[in-house]
Amino acid sequence: MRKFGRGHTLDTTGATGRELLGKLALLALAMACIDVLARGGCFADTGLGSECVRQVAIVGSGPAGYYTAEAAIKLWGDEVKVDIFDMLPVPYGLIRTGVAPDHQSIKAVSRRYEATNLSDNVRFVGNVMVGKDISIGELQEFYDAVVLATGAPHDRKMGMPGDELSNVFGSAAFVGWYNGHPDFAALNPDLSGKNAVVVGVGNVALDVARILAKTRDEFDGSDIVVHALDALDASGVEKIVILGRRGPHQIAMTPKELGELGHLHRASPRVDPADLPDEEEDAELEPGQRKSVTHIRNYAALGDEDRAGKTVDLEFDFFASPRAIVGAGKPEAVLVERTKLDGGRAVGTGETYPVPAELVVICIGYETSPIPDVPFDTDAGRFANDDGRILPGLYCVGWAKRGPSGTIGTNKPDGFEIVDRIAEDIGAGAEKSGGDGFDALAKDRGINFVTFHDWKKIDEAEIARARDGAPREKFVHVHDMIGAAGKG
Ligand code: NAP
After folding, report:
1. Are residues 20 and 101 in the same domain?
2. What contacts 484, CB < 8 A, 6 or more positions away?
3. Residue 462 in contact with residue 474, Cβ under 8 Å?
4. What is the pTM of this model?
5. Ligand 1: which residue has its CA nearest to atom 1?
6. Residues 401, 358: one domain?
7. Which atom of ligand 1 is nearest to the CA of 366?
8. Is the Cβ atom of 404 under 6 angstroms away from ligand 1?
9. Which of 69, 349, 396, 405 lies at a CB distance of 3.0 to 4.6 Å from 401, suitable for a disulfide?
10. Which of 171, 204, 256 to mutate to test the pocket of ligand 1 (most atoms within 8 A of CB)?
11. What is the domain range of residue 26?
12. Is 480 domain-assigned?
């Protein structure tokens, strides 16, 4: 005799015929019970008793948020309700405002997130600023688990003299400008100078340099916003210097993206062969990095004949650490110190030189925005967490958990792992009010939140106003988004 959940007992001895069938049915039921118990002990889908639904709030509708929602639905099916909050009235976070506008194939992943949105148990709740419209404590009253998937939207500070000058931007601001993020739509960078400096040799620096280098035609099929397209079209930039404080072996640029620099209409990459390490040392690199370094070697081998007709120089300056930006009001040059590697670290040699620059974009990584009452690790620039756990019932995932690293796909296992941890912690949930509780509070406070249905109206309006060949023309002001949703 064995005992199963909720007092069902099963005698598996001496059964024949109809009796056996009955026992098999009981066994199947028992197996279902075990499965349910393993998922937290909720019997809503077995017809065995009271319905218990976990209530999960995800703050941030980028990849980390949507993979977490997807994982929750996969694990709990109808026994979970997920509300995905975003401060903007539009979903998908970095897919919309971070991924380069000329990388449309990467943005296609949003179709997968859309499928998650179409689940009856998932709700998009846009235009809500958590920490301002509603506190974390209030969210925790309504939801069994609150997962911060807020990414890392702020620039890490360089902290060098002159970085407060106008026309010096962090990459969050500059990328946000050409991608139509409402916070940066009015950035209005001055692109009339001939010289631009991009600090950093990561994929964001690569995006920024490529966008600065492209012709208007090369943006065909992209969703770059029209204010940026027009400004770049009128740009006077002829030389873009990409500063790497270490060498070619230490770049953080992926091969596919780095390879694009070799196929630009008017721009050509330039690398000083003297900066290249011995070729046999490439064998020690992991294969992807080796491919990237091969691109750098190919660029170093380009001659004047390869650059015929190219009017924009994309120059890599390796072993070059920026020390100050000099200029009166606006930048005129970046003062750079030559470095050498010491145990993998860049150390200054004392030799300095100016690199002319009327525009400077600093692409050295991002930080998460703190939220009141949420423990924050200031040194790491993200929420203080233990494998995604912040406090009881409060979690983080993606860049808000691990810092700004990896690709979009890296967030998928992150999302699935955090849901497993939540399952361990919350069991069947505590019969919280979830979305109903939030809706009542929103009504009291007059929070004009946007649903997925509302977003689809914004989406349609953006598609309808697209210029020829573009997938959409984004609204860059929140009030226009709200208007298009019919909620103005
Ligand atoms: P990142 O990959 O961490 O690169 C940051 C760069 O800034 C590094 O070259 C770093 O050099 C440099 N840096 C940091 N501090 C510096 C300082 N004080 N002075 C000079 N240089 C400094 O960051 P990211 O480019 O912002 O990218 C963030 C994440 O998004 C990455 O995982 C990236 O791959 C991903 N991303 C992917 C794509 C894509 O797949 N298409 C596009 C954009 C972004 P050191 O190495 O010497 O520290």
Report:
1. no
2. 457, 458, 461, 462, 475
3. yes
4. 0.91
5. 202
6. no
7. 26
8. yes
9. 396
10. 204
11. 2-38
12. no
